[in-house]
Here is the input.
Amino acid sequence: MTTLTPSTPVPTALSAIAERLENGGALLPDSPENLVEVVGVLKSYAVVLDAYSINLNYIAEHQFLVLFPFFKYMNGDVTAGKLMRHWLHQRINYEFAEYCMKAMFWHGGGGLDAYLDTEEFRTRATAAIQAKLKGNLMMRGINQLFPQFLLEQIRQLSFYSGLGQFWRVMSDMFMVLSDRYDAGDITSIADVVDHIKQGLVDNAAMPITYAVTIEGDRYEIIPATAGLTFLMDTAVPYVEAVFLRSFPFFGTVSYNAQAQQIPPEQADFSYGVLFADPLPTGGAGIPPTLLMQDLTHYLPDYLRAVYAGGLRGNGDLRVKINQSFQKSMFCVTTSAILGLMPHPLTTSQPQEQQANREFIDSWLARLEPSALLRVQTPQS
Amino acid sequence: MTEFLVDSSWWVPVYGVLGAVVTLPWSTGLIRRAGSRPAAYLNIVMTVVALLHCVILWTDLWDLPALHVDIPWLKLFDLNLYFSIELSRVSLGAAVLITVLSLLAQFFALGYLEKDWALGRFYALMGFFEGAMTGIALSDSLFSSYALLEMLTLSTYLLVGFWYAQPLVVTAARDAFLTKRVGDLLMLMGVVALSAIAGTLDYAELTAWAETAELAPLTATLLGLALLAGPIGKCAQFPLNLWLDEAMEGPSPASILRNSVVVACGAYVLIRMQPILSLSPVVLTTLMVVGAITAIGASLVSIGQIDIKRALSHTTSAYLGLVFLAVGMQQDEVALMLLFAHALSKALLYMSVGSVTLTTSTQDLTEMGGLGSRMPATSLAFAIGSIAMVGMVPFGGFWAMQIWAERVTVGAPGLLLILLLVNGLTAFNLTRVFGLVFAGEPQAKTRRAPEAPWAICLPMVSLIVMCLLVPVMLLQWELLPSLASVRSPLSLAIIGSSVVGFGFGAFIYLNPAFEHPLGLGWKSMQDILAQDFRTDQLYRVTVVFAVRRGARLAAWFDRYVVDGMVNLIGVASIFGSESLKYTISGQSKHYLLTVVIGVILGIASLGWLF
Amino acid sequence: MLSILIWLPVLAGLAIACLPEAIMTPTRSRQVAMAIALVILGWTGYLLTQFDVQSAGLQFQESFDWIAPLGLSYRLGMDGLSLPLIAINSLLVYIALYCSDVNLIRPRLYYSLMMLLAAGVAGAFLAQNLLLFFLFYEVELIPLYLMIAIWGGSRRGYAATKFLIYTAISGALILAAFFGLALLSGSFSFDYEQLQNLELPMTTQLILLVTIVVGFGIKVPIVPLHTWLPDAHVQAPTPTSVLLAGVLLKLGTYGLLRFGLQLLPDAWRVIAPALAILAVVNVLYGSFVAIAQTDMKKMVAYSSVGHMGYVMLAAAAATPLSIAATIAQMISHGLISALLFLLVGVVYSKTGTRNVDVLQGLLNPERGLPLIGSLMIVSVMASAGIPGMIGFIAEFLVYRSSFPIFPVATLLCMLGTALTAVYFLNLINRSFFGRLPETFANLPAIYWKDRIPALIVVALVIAFGLQPGWIIRWSEPTSLALGTLGDRSTTTAFVEANPLTLPLSAPALVD
Here is the structure.
C-alpha cells in the first residue's frame, strides 16, 4: 500500500510498522519465535491474572474498610498450612495486582475515575460507611475528624473491584487463546491480535459494578445505572496507566525533587510495561519482578524449553519472561489500537483511511521512545 | 537469670548481625522459587529478641551501678584490645531505643518495600545496621566504638546503595562513604595516638588517665581535634554534612533510622570521649563553633529545600549541632536527653514522609497538598512529630530544650539565642512542610491519596503514642525539672520562639489567601539555601581537587618519568634496542632464559673456585 | 618434614613434564597437580599442629652438607615468620590451580611450572643457608617468567622481560650482599646461624644492608623500583597474579626481615627512618597512582604497592609489636590481594574487559555477576580496612606499633586507608552499580566453580578479621625475638617507660 509519490518522507522504522498495522499486522513482527513466546507467556499470565482477579474482587467485597487486613491475600481461606506457605512466601505476589490497581487509581482517567468524584458516589459510599461504622465509636470519631479518609478508601476499593472485573475477562480470554493455540487454531501473531481484539469487542459493553454486603444489607457503590462499561472505563484507562505511564521505579529513578528526574505532569510519565527495560528485572526496586516471578511458575513446557536454551539457562528466567511479556503486551496494545480505530481497517474510503492512518501515527509517536523498536528485531 | 543475661550481653549486637547472616540464602539468590519475606520475618524476630534482652537487663539493672563486662579480643605484648561492654541505665536505655526504632522501621519496611524483590538484602543490611548501633550503645572502649562506627559507615554505604542501579544512588553511596571515611580516618589517627600515649582505650581508664595526664597543649589539641572529626562526620556537622542530604536517595525505612539513631551514635561516642576532648580548650571551642555553625546553617538550609526528605534531613544536622554545643559545655546529660527526644520525633516525621512518598509517588513539596483529611495517621504523625520535636509544652522536645537552656547557657548566654533561633526556624520549617503537604487543595499527584497500608500505619501509630508518652517517661526517670520551671523566663522564651515559628509558618502556609512561597524570600537566597550554601563547591576546590590532581600527577610521573626512565635505560644499554619491544619472539625468550641460568651457574662456579 | 613441601611438588612437576603424553593427559596433569597441592596443604596443616607456638627458634630443622667448599649446605627450618607465609603459599597454590583455565594451551608445561613455583617459594621461605635461599629465589623466577611470557596477555613479552630483568638485578644484588657477608664472616659459610651476630664495622654493615634492601626492595616492590609489577600483573593470567600478589611479593619483605633486620639489626636501626619514609612514599604514591587507573588489574596492582608500604613501615619500626604487625599485614595483604585478583579475573573472563569506564551495572541479579560483585564489595572493604575483616586489625596493628617510633610517617601512611577507599569505591560504583548496559546483557553463565575460590578466601578474611589471634599466635615469640634485636633491644621497655615523651612533631620522621 506504499504510495509511490516521491514527496513522501523516507520510510522510517515507524512508518514500516504503521504500514504493517494497516495491512492487518501487529506492532510485534510475526515470527514463529515471537508466537511461541507470546502465547506461552500469556498462558502463564492467564493463570496469574485469574489469581489476581479473584483476590482483587475478594478484597473489594470482603475486606471492605477493614483496618488491619492481615489475611487479605488469603481469600478467606485461612488454614494453618496455607498460612505457613504464605509466611514462607510460597505464594502469588498479590502485591503486584495492587500496584497495578494503584497505578490506575492514581493516574485516573475514564468513567470510573470520574464517577468517584460525583455526588452520587459520595451519597452511596457514605451510606456504606455509616452501616460499617455502626457501634464503632472510635472510627466514627476519626471519620468525623477526617471526612475524606474512608471515602478515599472506598474510591480505592472501587478500583480494586474495577481492575478485578477487567482482569477476570482478560484472564479467560488469554486462557482460551492458549487452548486455541494448543488446538492449532492460532498460527500467527495476527491471529493472537485478532483473538484479543475480538474478546475486547465482545466484552466492550459489559457493565462494571461494585456492591458490598454489610450485615446482610447490600450496598451498591457503583450501580449498573452509573453506566460504566468494560472497554472504555477499565480497559482504556488500564492501558494508559499500566502499559504507558505507571510509576517511576525506586530502583532506577531518583525521587529527589531537586534532581527533577520525574516529570511534573502525570501525562508525561513513561514507566509502563511497553516502556520498561527488562534487563534490571529481579533487582532491587523493580516491582514488575513480582509479576515475572509469578509467571515463572505456570510457564507451558514448550516455552520453558525455549528459555532453557539461553546462555544462562534458568539463571535469567525472569528477564527473559519480561522480554516475552513485553512482546505479548505489544500484541494486546495492537488489539486495543485496532479496536479503537475510528473506522474499520478494511475501509476503502480515502478519508477514512487517512483518519485511520493519523490515529495509528499518533499511537506510534507516543510509542516511539518505548521498547517498540527494540522488539522489531530478535533479542536474547 | 540476670546473671546469664549479663554474661551473654555481648549477644545484643550479635542478634542483628545473626539476622543478617540468616538472610543469606535469600539475599544471595539461593532461594529462587519463593520470595524473600521469610528473611524479613526472621530479622524482625531477631530484633524482638534483642529488644527483650535489652529491656529485661535494663529493668533488672536499673537500680544498680554500671556493670562492666570485658571480652578480651586480642592480646599482643603491651597491646590489649577488649570488646568491653558497659551495662548501665544510659547504655541499655540507648540500646532499647535503638532496637525499638529498628523494630518499627523494619515493620514499616514490610509495607514500604512490599513490592521490592530484594527485601532479603535490605533486611540483612538493617540487621547489620542495628547490630553496629547497639554495639556502640553498649561499647565501653574507644577501640570497639571506633570499629563499630566504621561498620556503621559500611552499612550506611550499603543501605544508601540499596537501589544500586539508580543513577544518583551511585554517587550518593560513594559520597556518604567517603565523607564519613574522612572523619573516620582522622578519628583513627586519634585512636592510634591515644592508644600509644595513654596505653589503653578503655573508657573508664581513659577518663582516669585524662584526669592526671599532662600533655603538651599542641598534642592535646591535635589529639582532640582528630578524635572530634569522627563524630563530625557521623553527625553530619559542617563541613562533613552533605552526605546526609545525598543519603536521602536511600530507602525511607533506612532514613528513619539514619536520621534518628545513626547520627545519634556519633554524638553518643562524642559524649564518651568528652573527658579526652576536655584536655584542650581549643578542641572544646572547635566543637562549639562547629555545632553553632551547623545548627544555624542547617536550619536555614532546611527551609530552602523543596524535597520533602531533604527538608527534614537538614534539621537533623541542626539538632545534632545543639547536641554538640551541649557536649562542648560538658553537659552530657542534656545532650543525651536532646538526642532521645529528637530520635523519637524525627523517626516519626520520617515515617510520615515515607508514607506520603509512597502514596503520592513524589517527593516534591511543590506538587503536594490537601493530604490532611484523607491520611489521618500520616498527617497526625507529622503534626505530633513536629510538636514533639520543637519546644512545645509538654512534649519531649520542650523538656530537652528547657534543660539545655538552663544548663548549657550558664556562662554563655549567647547560646540561648542559637537555641531560640534553631527552634523557631525548625518550627517554621515544619509548619511550612505541613502546610504544603497536608493543607490546601489537592494537586494532580495528590488527587488520589488513600492512607498507607496497615504495615506502615501500625508502626506510625505506635510511635505517635510513644512520642506522646515521652514526658511520662521522663517523669518516671526523674529527669523532669519541677513543673514550676515551665513558667520560668527561659521556658517562656522557648515556647515563645516555637509559637513565633509556628505562627509565621501558619500565616504563610496554612493561609488559603496567601500565595505560598517555597522558602524564605527572594530567589538568590532561595537558591543558595537550596544548594546548601554551596558546600559541595568547598569540597570540590579542596579535597576533591587535591586528590584528583595528586592522582593525575602521580600517574603521569609513574608512566613517563619512572617507567619512562626504566624503558630508556633498558632500550639504551642493557639488552639493545630489540629486546624491550612490546612483543619479542619466542627465540629471544629462550635466549633470555639461557642468560639467567648462565648467570646463576656462572656465579655458582665462581663460588666453587673461591 | 619440611623437605616434603619442596620435593613433592618438584617430583610431581617432573612427572607431569616428563611422563609420556599418553599417560599424562592434560586432564590428568591438572588432577595430579591439584592432588599434590592438596597433599601439600594437608601437610602444612599437619605442621601447624606440630609447631610449638612458645618457641622463637627454628623448628623441624633439616641439615646436611651439600657443596661444602662453596659453603652451600642444605639447611631448612621454620619459625614464626616463615610458618604463616608457608601456609598462605600452600593455600594459594591450590587456589591458583583450582582457578586455572581448564582449556589452556600447553597444560603439561603449565602445571609442571606451577609445581616448580610452589617448590621454589616454599624452599625460599624455609632455606637456612643463604646460598640455598638464593637458589630457590632464582628457581621461582623461571616458572613465573614463563607463565607471563606464554599464558599472558597481549603485551606479555614486554612484561615478562621487564620482570625478568628486574628480578635478575634483584638476584644479583642479593647474591653480592650474601657473598659479602660470607666473606666478611671469616669462615666463608653461608649458613644462616653462623652469620648471625657478626661483629662488623657500621659502614660495612650499612653497605651490605643497603644492597640487601635494594635487592629485596625490587621484589616488595619499593617505589621507584616498582614498575615491573603493574605490567607483570596486567599481563599475567589470573592464577599467576594471585600467586604473585599473594605470595611472591612477600618474598621481598620476608628477605628484608630475615636477611636485613635479623642479620644486621644495628644497621637496620640506622636506616629505619629512611625505610619509614620509603614506606610513606610507597603508600601515598601507590594509592595516588591507583586512583588514576581505569584498568581494574592495574588498580589492584598499585594498591599492592601501597599496601606493601604498610609492611615496610612496621618492619622499619622493628619492635616486637610491629614485627607481629608486619607478619599480620603480610598475611592480610596476601589474602586480600589474592582475592581481588581472583575476582577481577572472573570479571575479565566473563566480560572481556577490566576497564572501569566501560563496565557498568554488573550487580544486575539475572544477567550480571551479582555474587561476584558482592564478594568484590567485601574484598575492597577488607582492603580499605573495614573492621570485621583481616585488613582492619592488620592495619591497626601496623599503625599502633609504628606510631611510637615514627609518628609522622605513621600518620601519613594512614592517609592511605582513605585513598584506598577512594579508588576502590570508584571501582565498585562504576563497574558494579548503575544499569547493566546492552553491551554486557549477554554475559556467559557463572558457575559455582568461578565463585568457590573467592568464597574460601573471603571466609578466611572474615574469620581472621573476627579472630586475629588465630594468625598472630604463631608468630609471637619470633616477633619478640626479632623486635628486640640490636642496640635498641629495650625498645618495648623504653616505650612503656616513657609513653609521654614521644614527639609528635615533624623531626620524628627522621629521628
Remarks:
- Strands of chain B lie at 67-69, 72-76, 79-82, 85-87.
- Chain B touches chain A through 54 residues (CB under 8 Å).
- Chain B is about 75% helix and 0% strand.
